[in-house]
Design brief:
By secondary structure, the protein is α/β, with parallel strands linked by helices. Helix content is 30%, strand content 19%.
């Protein structure tokens, strides 16, 4: 038995009058995976000694063919890893559940930019563009996990490092996809925001995105890893940068 995979052999390109665009296969979602990992690495050497959290960068496999594999988002992989971390720290089951309840997750998966040839496909009031910052994604059907609380926390983090952000919502009469955020949340209940980087031709063999948005993403996620998010008794959150 053999398996046949068809793929685009065209190399990635940086192009535009000011090298402002990136075109390559599989930008969705290697672009966010790369940015998140680079931010994680950069944050490692800058976290304050007072920072008492555990940062995790989780990159799942098999998203586009289904997340129900043993290493997919719709598996116990994330919850297993988080529980093993808590065991290594000597926490019992109750302390582990308390740590989960007080945690915050950023689900990063690219977003649809307004296409110049198909502007009617975008919502009239939520129109993200490439190189205009991180896209915060909303969906009334909860296919995106963003709510008022998670959005306000992430906006505060972006504002702290001068990273611009914009919003995306599907047209109400056009169904959109899902992300790994709400899938993994079915196994680990975390306060979560869905974000992405604006791109064209999503899921085509050769996609296009903004070069500046990669830097925006790294800066914002690095700030996230350097931020202490605490929920106080009245339900409000305190967001403190620990650099």
């Amino acid at each position: 038995t053999t398996e046949l995979f068809l793929y685009n052999r065209e190399k990635g390109r940086i192009w535009g009058c000011n090298d402002e665009y990136i075109s390559a296969p599989r930008l969705d979602d290697i672009q966010c995976a790369y940015s998140s990992l680079m931010a994680y690495i950069k944050a490692l050497g800058e976290i304050s000694d007072d920072y008492d959290k555990v940062n995790v960068c989780s990159v799942f496999n098999n998203e586009e063919v289904g997340s129900t594999t043993m290493q997919g988002a719709d598996s116990t992989f994330l919850s297993d890893v988080l529980e093993r971390i808590s065991i290594a720290y000597g926490l019992d089951r109750e302390k582990y559940m308390m740590a989960i309840a007080s945690s915050y997750m950023v689900s990063a998966d690219n977003a649809h930019a307004v296409h110049p040839n198909h502007t009617d496909k975008a919502d009239l009031t939520n129109r993200p563009y490439m190189n205009k910052g991180i896209v915060i994604k909303y969906n009334a059907n909860q296919k995106y996990t963003t709510d008022a609380v998670s959005a306000s926390i992430f906006k505060t983090i972006c504002d702290s490092v001068d990273v611009p952000y914009q919003t995306f919502t599907n047209r109400s009469d056009i169904l959109g996809g899902s992300t790994l955020g709400n899938i993994s949340n079915a196994h680990v209940s975390l306060n979560t925001i869905d974000i992405g980087l604006a791109q064209l031709a999503m899921h085509s063999t050769y996609e296009t995105a903004g070069a500046k948005d990669v830097t925006y993403m790294i800066d914002a996620i690095k700030a996230f890893y350097n931020t202490s998010i605490e929920q106080v008794e009245d339900g409000q959150y305190i967001v403190n940068n620990m650099e």
